[in-house]
Design a protein that fits this description.
binds pyridoxal-5'-phosphate, 2 domains, 353 residues, Aspartate Aminotransferase, domain 2, alpha/beta, seven-stranded mixed beta sheet
C-alpha cells in the first residue's frame, strides 16, 4: 500500500506538456538564443569545468557579481534553480502548519501550489476588475489573517500590469510579515523594489535569468534579501543544489548583460507596437503590459486559441482560471513571428478564418 502525503493527489498540477509549435509564444521565454559573443564565452568556459567535482565557489562568484551590481553584499543574495526554486523555498521557510501566505489573484498560478506544498494556508486576494492591485484590501487581508508571508508579482504575470513603487513601499511599510516581490519580468518595465530593501528588512526580491536573459533551459534565479533571511532560506536547500554548468553560464550572462540591452529594447518596442495594433481589432480587449507578453480578452478566446493552434501557433489559454475567463496570454516573439501571429489574430477577429 503506497501511503502518499495527505493532499498530494488533490494538488493542482502545472501542465508543462508541449507541442512542437511553429511559433511558441506560450511561456514568456525569449525568442532568441544566447547572443553570439556570450555563446562563445560560455562554450569556452564549459570546456574547463571539473565535471568530477561538486560545485565549489562558482555560486559565490555569481552572488558577488549580482550583489555588487545592485550595491548590496554577497550575504544579501541567494541563488536557486530558477526563481521557481526560490519561491518554493521561501514558502517553505515561512510556511508550515498554522501559517498563512497571502498572494493576489490572478497572478502566477504556481504561488498557490508552492503554498500548499509548504503545508501553509493560502489566501488569494482578488485584484480589481481591470487587474490593478488593491493594496488596502491586500494589507487588511494580511493583517486579519496574521500572515507570515505576502507575495506579489511586479510586473504581474499573467496580467502584465505593474504596481507603482509608492504602492509597493506602502505594502512594505504596512505588512508586518515577510514580503516577497517576484520581479521575473522587471527588465521589461516597472520599478524594482530593491531600493526599498534598506528601509524595509521584510522585503525579499526574486528574479530570474529565464526571461530577459533567455536562459530558461539553465534554470537560474536569485533572491535578494536581508542576510538573516538569506541564511534561514538557505537552510531549506539541499547541498550543491545548483549545478556548475548553469552557474558558470549564468555568471557569464550576467557579466555580459549589456549584450542583452538591444533585444530587451526590441521586445519592449514590439510589445508597444502590438498593443496598439491589437487595440484596433473589433471585440478584443488588450491590457497594458510592462512585461514580455500581452494579455488579451475576447468572448471567443477558446475558438481563437484553437484557430491559432491549428496554424502551429502556441499561446497560453487560461480556460476558467479565476479572473481570467476568456483570456489569452501571448508572449512577444521576434518581429517576424509577431507579424505572423498578429495576422492570424486579425484574420480570426475580422471573420476571415
Ligand atoms: C511571475 C513568475 N515568477 C517566477 C517564474 C519562474 O521562472 P523561473 O523558474 O524560470 O525562474 C515565472 C515563470 O514563468 C513567472 O512568470
Amino acid at each position: 500500500m503506497l501511503q502518499f502525503r495527505a493532499g498530494l493527489a488533490e494538488m493542482p498540477v502545472y501542465d508543462v506538456t508541449e507541442r512542437d509549435w511553429k511559433i511558441k509564444i506560450n511561456a514568456n521565454e525569449s525568442s532568441l538564443n544566447l547572443p553570439p559573443l556570450v555563446e562563445e564565452r560560455v562554450l569556452s568556459r564549459l570546456s574547463s569545468i571539473a565535471f568530477n567535482r561538486y560545485p565549489n565557489d562558482e555560486g559565490d562568484q555569481l552572488r558577488e557579481q549580482i550583489a555588487s551590481s545592485l550595491h548590496l553584499k554577497k550575504e544579501n543574495v541567494c541563488l536557486g534553480n530558477g526563481s521557481s526554486e526560490i519561491i518554493e523555498k521561501i514558502c517553505y521557510a515561512f510556511g508550515g502548519s498554522g501559517h498563512t501566505i497571502v498572494y493576489p489573484e490572478p497572478s502566477f498560478s504556481m504561488y498557490r501550489i508552492y503554498v500548499e506544498m509548504a503545508g501553509a494556508e493560502g489566501i488569494a486576494v482578488p485584484t480589481r476588475k481591470d487587474y490593478r492591485g488593491d493594496v488596502k484590501k491586500f494589507v487588511s487581508t494580511v493583517q486579519e489573517r496574521k500572515a507570515s508571508l505576502a507575495i506579489i508579482c511586479n510586473p504581474n504575470n499573467p496580467t502584465g500590469n505593474f504596481l507603482p513603487l509608492h504602492d509597493v513601499a506602502y505594502l512594505a511599510h504596512h505588512l508586518d510579515c515577510a514580503f516577497l516581490v517576484d520581479e521575473a519580468y522587471i527588465e521589461f518595465g516597472g520599478s524594482s523594489a530593491v531600493s526599498l530593501m534598506k528601509h524595509f528588512p521584510n522585503v525579499i526580491v526574486a528574479r530570474t535569468f529565464s526571461k530577459a536573459f533567455g536562459l530558461a533551459s539553465a534554470r537560474v534565479g536569485y533572491m535578494l534579501a536581508a542576510p538573516e533571511v538569506v541564511q534561514m532560506v538557505s537552510r531549506v536547500y539541499m547541498p550543491y543544489h545548483l549545478n556548475v554548468l548553469s552557474l558558470v553560464t549564468a555568471d557569464i550572462v550576467y557579466q555580459m548583460r549589456d549584450e542583452y540591452a538591444p533585444r530587451i529594447a526590441m521586445t519592449i518596442s514590439e510589445r508597444q507596437r502590438l498593443e496598439e495594433q491589437l487595440k484596433e481589432l473589433p471585440g478584443l480587449t488588450v491590457y497594458p503590459s510592462r512585461t514580455n507578453f500581452l494579455l488579451v480578452k475576447c468572448d471567443c478566446a477558446a475558438a481563437l486559441n484553437e484557430a491559432l493552434a491549428a496554424q502551429g501557433i502556441g499561446v497560453r489559454c487560461f480556460g476558467e482560471a479565476p479572473g481570467l475567463a476568456n483570456c489569452l496570454r501571448i508572449s512577444i516573439g521576434s518581429r517576424e513571428e509577431n507579424d505572423i501571429w498578429f495576422k492570424s489574430v486579425k484574420d480570426f477577429m475580422e471573420g476571415r478564418s
